[in-house]
Amino acid sequence: MTLTGKKIAFLLTDGVEQIELTSPWEAVQDAGGSPTLVSPAGDSLQGFNGTSPGDTFTVDASPQSVEAEDFDALVLPGGVVNADHLRMDEASVNLVRAFFEQHKPVAAICHGPWLLAEAGVLGGRTVTSYPSLRTDLSNAGAEWVDEEVVVDNGLVTSRNPDDLPAFNAKLVEEVNEGTHAGQTT
Description:
By secondary structure, the chain is α/β, with parallel strands linked by helices. 32% of the residues lie in helices and 24% in strands. It is globular. The mean pLDDT is 97.
């Protein structure tokens, strides 16, 4: 599968679980896609390897400066601090919701699905996540399952970094397929 000509937004901020950014980013690039790092953090952000600081990453754009129509898909990496801060950022939440309104693929791993709950897009959807989010996602209307990767009409979710090979494969597959009529708010 090829993602040549496809633009994929990665929405994250300080505290992102580094491997949940770098591994899907590489998968998108390897398939010929063009990833863009979108963040409210400013010019750069701090990645983490668990609870230890990792690398810093250069931000390409802010959530206020981009539109969902600028991209073919959205990736939401995890990390507790990352996801918690993003779900409190109105522009980030609105951007997530816009991808669903435009029926575009969205992939969220680990704590990334917290943004989906905040955006109000989980009603009637089947998802997975880091286990501590189960109640939050269920309360947001989702059916939570404990599986390596779950695909529901263009929405890809996974539990943790161990699931990255399956997550990345489904991310590339769903972006390659394009919009999904069932991917909506």
